[in-house]
Amino acid sequence: MSTKIDDQSELPKPSKKLMALQKLIGRWQVAGGAEGTVTYRWMEGGFFLIQDVDLLQNGVHIVGMEIIGHLRPFGEAESPALTSRFYDNQGNTLDYEYEITGNELTIWAGVKDSPAYFKGTFSEDGKINKGEWVYPGGFGYESTMTKIDE
Questions:
Q1: Cβ pair 38, 54 in contact under 8 A
Q2: Shortest CA distance to 116 belongs to which of 97, 96, 135, 139?
Q3: Beta carbons of 119 and 108 less than 8 angstroms apart
Q4: What H or E segment, with its residue span, contains residue 85?
Q5: Are strands 140-149 and 26-32 parallel, antiparallel or unpaired?
Q6: Nearest partner of 132 among 42, 13, 61, 32, judged by Cα
Q7: Per-residue tens of pLDDT for the chain, all 150 residues
Q8: Would you say 84 and 68 are in contact if contact means Cβ atoms under 8 Å apart?
Q9: CA-to-CA distance for 41 and 53, rounded, in angstroms?
Q10: Cβ(13)–Cβ(70) under 8 Å?
Q11: CA dihedral sign of residues 43, 46, 48, 53
Q12: Residues 69/87, Cβ–Cβ less than 8 Å
């Protein structure tokens, strides 16, 4: 039995959960506990979202990149969670889990339901996301992202 190369019906497609992150696509001005810009763009194929980061936080210039998507080891089904790994110019590698429900974006540090997370709400026009990073011990900060380019 052979499979035609031009038969696209059997090729995987990005999940609805991943496609919900479309709201993030574009360049955003970030204000609050971290200041600067972040840009979200799709990797070719649409299975991963890439975030480019250029922020100043607590006097430290952070330049980084994050890749967001489902884990799918070769030959296996994709994971149910939207996970990411963030790499920065300080040598850090940080893992997150993303979820968008309606106009609410949640990003957990590590895994879902972690005590460290961001929760923000998109404006009706989708051009502002306002929320707060929450950390154990009462630490955290408010954050507002305003879309400056599509």
A1: yes
A2: 135
A3: no
A4: strand 82-88
A5: antiparallel
A6: 32
A7: 334 445 555 678 899 999 999 999 999 999 999 999 999 999 999 999 999 999 999 999 999 999 999 999 998 989 999 999 999 999 999 999 999 999 999 999 999 999 999 999 999 999 999 999 999 998 899 999 999 998
A8: yes
A9: 12
A10: no
A11: positive
A12: no
d(CA 150, CA 147): 7
Residues listed for the chain:
150
Quote the DSSP letter at residue 66.
E
| pTM attached to this predicted model | 0.89
Residues 6+ positions from 39 with CB-CB distance below 8 Å: 26, 27, 28, 51, 52, 149
Q: Which of 81, 24, 90 is nearest to 56 (CA)?
A: 90
Looking up tokens 């969670």 gives 81
What is the CATH number that goes with domain 20-149?
Answer: 2.40.128.20
